[in-house]
Amino acid sequence: MARTDAAWLPDLILLTGITGFLAHRIALDLLNAGHAVRGSLRSMDRAGTVRDALRPHLDDPDCLERLEFVLLDLSRDDGWTEAAKGCEAILHTASPFPLEQRPKDPQAVIGPAVGGTVRALRAAKAAGARRVVLTSSTAAVANGPDPGGGRPRDERDWSTEGHPGANAYVLSKTRAERAAWNEARRADLDLTVINPGFVLGPLLADEGGTSVAVAERLLKGRDPMLPDLTFEAVDVRDVSRAHLAALAGPSTVGRRYVCQSGPLSFVEMARIAREEAPGRRIPSRQAPNWLVRLLARFDPALKGIVPTLGRRQAVSSDRARAELGIDFIPPQEAARATFRALLALGR
């Protein structure tokens, strides 16, 4: 079913979690490419907000005629099969991404992530939509055994349950992706998985997510010192391109694609924030690791980052560059675009 020519325009694509930071961009790119989109919401009250966010960025405002909405919940069976009816493909982006990586109840994160993924693939099977593209994460790749030989982790690698960095979010993405591959094999579905790093980049509206919340926290100078954390970052525009490229080509079926453009530390992000907002007091001093560990005893939000202090989770995006043709935007540019968007919104 999948084709590589630009003329392939599915009658309808189900895009789950359309209110999300990444899904906003994917919806925009799908509509501008001529696709029809059915976006899932948890409340129909958000439909107007999504339309308003997309409208100024569309090549033609009439594209909104090809956008419709459906109610779905990651934790409930209701409506999934009906939502997928008439769709040729499903892009499943919806998944919890908490700011606190070690919540009191990990199942509050893991359960919806795994359950929603299984529901999406079963709905695809029931509705005859063979093509599925799943948004996973480098979190499902980078928190496992060292591959050895000095090579970075890549699509061959998987995060493991007992790894020190295997917090609730890591487990949610890892278990959800494994469940997706199992379900795809069982149901004979054409699955491609995109594994983005820490997603930054321009906002389409006054939106956000955990990654944007981290950038906003830096911009507002809420922390007197910064932890020794480095992310493999990626621009939201490139992650969206990866989803569309995966959808277009049959050669991507059965493949995982790590998407990251390079490392970006909290200190470097703060430096960029100071350049973009010279009138604000934005600390850029790095906290010693012993101090963060001490504070983590009293601050649950810090407990989740302790295992990754001073550690770079290097992953390779060579496959995405070669097979999806993506020339990734540098991480510094992605961060700069995030700060500029937040400032333009008065945040």
TrEMBL record:
Signal peptide (from-to): none
Give the NAD-dependent epimerase/dehydratase domain ranges. Answer: 13-256
Q: Name one GO molecular function term.
A: oxidoreductase activity, acting on the CH-OH group of donors, NAD or NADP as acceptor
Q: Where is this region: Disordered?
A: 138-166
Composition-biased stretches (Basic and acidic residues): 151-160
Q: Keywords for this entry?
A: Oxidoreductase
Q: Does the keyword Repressor apply?
A: no
Family, according to the entry, reads as follows: Belongs to the NAD(P)-dependent epimerase/dehydratase family. Dihydroflavonol-4-reductase subfamily.
What is this protein called in UniProt? Dihydroflavonol-4-reductase
Q: Which organism is it from?
A: Hasllibacter halocynthiae
Q: What is the lineage of its organism?
A: Bacteria, Pseudomonadati, Pseudomonadota, Alphaproteobacteria, Rhodobacterales
